[in-house]
Write a sequence for this structure.
């Protein structure tokens, strides 16, 4: 099993969710996060006053999947989240040792 | 269970919805179990010197199906022998084995009546004590001591209860209007009901000894409803669960005892019960409040000085001086709410009661005198408007004034995010705007800055008041319904057209920014253009940003995350920058398709904004002035509008024109609130000034209007020296330096294609615009476009400036900045 963590632009969330739904992936955890990578922050000016925007709003999507689906899902996220500009985000893939469904204690892939 | 099984009790409950037999049966059953366990496990080791005393809900004989059982083991002395301790352990174990969730404590009568802060919970639980089994003598000694003890510690216990209640209420956002309420803990829940009983006992209104607690007569119906609901929740969950969830709100409808046909009606009944209990709890806390410290008393005495001929203030509460006047003069109630909105004080319980008694008269008054916009505007512009609205809501006045509001009272509209009813969400949204003035959070302070710049707080608050009322119609298109409702109410109130238009615009667009924030790339220029198109002007953008802020913040306490604050602020800046750019760059090149050749000539070259902020009637008036200016070189019009004046000048462009006009107004003692100036392709300039006449010179001397017009003509024609006129006028006393806003002047040559933007923020004063405009003109610069706004004491002036047709160089900017700052400080 693998955990996929995708940091994407907030406005791409609906598109990514729809694309994942299209390939049969419904379960995910979505959180609002703030941060920056190479995009860095920038300064905004209002009424002559500078506002440092250090941490840009992003959305984090987390999913745990069977190994066999990882490539397909990664490609789908890339396809839906890409604009080609700096700030599109990143995808991380981790190995997951175990999954347990709390309700009935199913384990492994059957708990996904 | 006295021959009745648990299943039978349950069945009776589900048929009747009456909780009392359930509570009585379970209490009797627990009494029996404890009595048996006492005889078997304790009596052999403790033939005397131990009494089992029921406390808390068990003591009151109010054991719900899965409530904990609180038991006090009253002993003469701590169990001394190992055998006694083992007997005690065996007794408790046997009760746990019988399925009782037992909370126990062991105390001597002396400990029960000792003054110790660690004992305070025990002291409160003793208000409901009764003997279950054991030594009657030791219990009698406790009963003898308790009244004296309660009397001596009365205020400590009241204070403690009040503190606990305030913390609990705050945990539930101080509102009864939760969509999924906890029927025990929420404000207005059973714990509040119990608080009323305790406070009434402690204050001496009821006996300390209440072995069988009876619901207080005025709250009996509410108690029965809440108790039945809690019983139902315990039975359904099979444990001590008190959350009335969406699922259970649906499920309860199918029960035999259900009296309502839909969940919304159930919830309305719940809110009515909770409201009665909550108000009683708040009233009792107010009545039993300690006299307090000397300093607090001094403060309260000081507050009492704000009393007027209508109202008096006592202990931070507003009382009517002549309450009987309410029957003859319903307007007195509206004055009371304006008083609350001004001073942030709540109505006293007696005042609330008297207003509630006069509701029929107030309803008649509202029906017979609908044109009450000035009253509503006054209340909604004052610093504590949200408190006034909440009090109007609680006393039923808001519902009597607006039937549309009454339809949304206690209205449950379920969605994944909202936690409160529509009325509560609305009031919290208005509070969110007010709270911006007090926040220290740097992310929120950005929006505080916007709030200081909005034109009309009343427009914001009226928008929020009506923005979701359409949900009561349940057509699935709440924005359209809210618009329809607001349109009707504003017409009834006879709101000025400009303000009504603003409110309707904001209601129609109130979801736009949220949607754009989540679905559009804020770095995409197309998003910036879309935002500029949706909002139209900077003023509307600020209003809409604040409405969006409040609407999100009032969804639930955690809804406005730093993430959303950052997104909303970015969105505001994107839209603001685009509007700033377009104001100078986007000129009218192709006037509306139905425009005549004359209109095309007039409009071409004006900023696009012109068509967005002026109605057709205003444009027609401007054109009329233009026609006469084409012949004579200038045309002047002065009109009185809603307490202010509007000066419109159309003239051939010339140096120092803006400074001359502003100077004449300053020389006449007029206070400029708002101004705009721009030119068309034919070299004609349109200047609009909204100004106040603080000394009522024009109102009291109508001939002064003619003199003002004449002076304007003479100055524009070069026949009078504006500088001398201004100098002749004595300057009013300046605001003391420490209170004065620190002026700021900023330049931006990137914002637009053709000119340099100068933004000046300064303490407003008569003649400020004259000084600024003259300084810019004296520097050899041409003012292409001006927008000026004054809110309270803060002037915000925006100039689009060129020098010899080009943007200002860095050195020109540096020099001008110093001179403008000096002009601000004059």
């Amino acid at each position: 099993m693998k955990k996929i963590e995708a940091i994407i632009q907030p406005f791409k969330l609906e598109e990514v969710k729809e694309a994942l739904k299209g390939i049969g992936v419904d379960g995910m955890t979505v959180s609002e996060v703030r941060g920056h990578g190479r995009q860095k922050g920038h300064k905004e000016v209002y009424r002559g006053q500078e506002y440092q925007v250090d941490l840009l709003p992003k959305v984090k999507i987390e999913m745990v999947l069977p190994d066999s689906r990882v490539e397909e899902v990664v490609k789908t996220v890339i396809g839906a989240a890409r604009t080609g500009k700096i700030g599109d985000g990143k995808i991380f893939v981790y190995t997951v040792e175990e999954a347990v469904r709390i309700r009935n204690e199913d384990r492994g892939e059957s708990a996904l | 269970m006295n021959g009745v099984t648990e299943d039978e009790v349950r069945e009776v409950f589900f048929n009747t919805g009456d909780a009392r037999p359930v509570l009585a049966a379970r209490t009797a059953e627990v009494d029996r179990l404890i009595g048996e366990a006492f005889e078997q496990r304790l009596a052999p080791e403790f033939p005397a010197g131990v009494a089992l005393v029921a406390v808390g809900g068990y003591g009151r004989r109010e054991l719900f199906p899965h409530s904990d059982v609180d038991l006090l083991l009253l002993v003469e002395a701590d169990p001394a022998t190992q055998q006694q301790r083992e007997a005690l352990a065996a007794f408790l174990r046997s009760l746990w084995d019988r399925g009782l969730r037992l909370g126990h404590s062991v105390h001597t009568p002396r400990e029960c009546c000792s003054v110790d802060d660690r004992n305070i919970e025990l002291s409160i639980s003793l208000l409901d004590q009764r003997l279950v089994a054991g030594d009657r003598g030791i219990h009698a000694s406790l009963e003898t001591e308790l009244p004296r003890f309660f009397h001596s510690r009365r205020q400590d216990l009241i204070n403690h209860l009040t503190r606990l209640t305030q913390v609990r209420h705050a945990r539930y956002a101080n509102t009864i209007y939760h969509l999924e309420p906890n029927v025990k803990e929420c404000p207005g829940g059973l714990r509040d009901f119990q608080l009323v009983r305790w406070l009434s006992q402690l204050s001496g209104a009821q006996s300390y000894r209440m072995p069988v607690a009876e619901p207080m007569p005025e709250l009996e119906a509410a108690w029965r409803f809440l108790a039945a609901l809690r019983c139902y929740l315990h039975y359904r969950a099979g444990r001590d669960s008190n959350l009335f969830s969406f699922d259970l709100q649906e499920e309860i409808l199918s029960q035999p005892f259900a009296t309502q046909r839909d969940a919304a009606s159930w919830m309305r009944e719940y809110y009515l019960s909770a409201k009665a209990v909550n108000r009683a709890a708040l009233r009792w806390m107010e009545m039993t409040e300690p006299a307090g410290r000397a300093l607090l008393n001094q403060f309260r005495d000081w507050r009492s000085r704000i009393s007027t001929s209508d109202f008096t203030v006592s202990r931070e509460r507003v009382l009517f001086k002549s309450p009987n006047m309410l029957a003859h003069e319903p307007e007195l109630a509206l004055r009371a709410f304006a008083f609350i909105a001004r001073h942030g004080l709540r109505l006293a319980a007696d005042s609330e009661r008297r207003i509630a008694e006069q509701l029929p008269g107030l309803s008649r008054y509202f029906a017979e005198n609908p044109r009450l916009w000035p009253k509503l505007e006054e209340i909604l512009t004052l610093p504590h408007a949200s408190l006034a609205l909440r009090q109007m809501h609680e006393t039923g006045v808001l519902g009597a004034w607006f039937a549309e509001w009454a339809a949304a009272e206690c209205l449950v509209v379920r969605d994944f995010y909202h936690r409160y009813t529509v009325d509560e969400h609305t009031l919290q949204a208005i509070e969110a705007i007010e709270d911006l003035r007090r926040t220290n959070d740097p992310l929120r302070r950005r929006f505080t800055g916007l709030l200081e710049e909005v034109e009309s707080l009343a427009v914001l608050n009226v928008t929020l008041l009506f923005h979701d009322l359409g949900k009561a119609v349940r057509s699935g298109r709440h924005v359209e319904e809210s618009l329809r409702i607001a349109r009707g109410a504003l017409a009834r109130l006879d709101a000025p057209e400009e303000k009504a238009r603003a409110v309707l615009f904001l209601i129609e667009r109130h979801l736009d920014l949220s949607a754009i924030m989540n679905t559009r790339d804020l770095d995409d220029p197309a998003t910036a253009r879309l935002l500029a198109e949706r909002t139209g002007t900077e003023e509307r953008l600020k209003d809409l940003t604040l409405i969006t802020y409040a609407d999100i913040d009032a969804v639930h306490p955690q809804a406005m995350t730093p993430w959303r604050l950052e997104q909303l602020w970015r969105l505001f800046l994107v839209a603001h920058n685009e509007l700033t750019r377009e104001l100078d760059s986007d000129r009218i090149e192709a006037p509306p398709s139905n425009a005549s050749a004359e209109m095309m000539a007039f409009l071409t070259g004006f900023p696009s904004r012109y068509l967005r902020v002026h109605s057709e009637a205003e444009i027609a008036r401007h054109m009329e002035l233009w026609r006469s200016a084409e012949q004579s070189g200038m045309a002047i019009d002065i009109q009185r509008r809603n307490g202010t004046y509007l000066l419109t000048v159309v003239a051939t462009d010339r140096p120092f024109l803006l400074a001359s006009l502003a100077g004449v107004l300053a020389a006449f003692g007029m206070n400029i609130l708002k101004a705009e100036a721009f030119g068309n392709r034919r070299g004609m300039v349109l200047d609009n000034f909204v100004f106040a006449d603080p000394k009522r010179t024009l109102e009291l001397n109508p001939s002064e209007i003619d003199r003002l017009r004449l002076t304007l003509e003479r100055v524009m024609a070069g026949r009078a020296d504006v500088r001398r006129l201004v100098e002749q006028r004595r300057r009013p006393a300046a605001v003391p330096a420490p209170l004065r806003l620190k002026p700021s002047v900023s330049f931006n040559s990137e914002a637009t294609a053709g000119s340099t933007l100068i933004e000046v923020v300064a303490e407003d004063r008569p003649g400020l615009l004259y000084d600024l405009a003259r300084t810019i003109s004296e520097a050899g610069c041409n003012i292409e476009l001006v927008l000026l706004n004054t809110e309270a004491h803060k002037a915000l002036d925006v100039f689009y400036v060129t020098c010899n047709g080009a943007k200002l160089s860095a050195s020109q900017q540096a020099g001008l900045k110093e001179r403008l700052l000096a002009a601000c400080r004059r």
Q: What stands out?
A: Helices of chain A lie at 13-22, 70-81. The longest helix of chain A spans residues 70-81. The two ends of chain A are 9 Å apart (CA to CA). Chain A touches chain B at residues 9-11, 13-14, 32-34, 44-49, 51, 53, 55-57, 83, 85, 87 (CB under 8 Å).
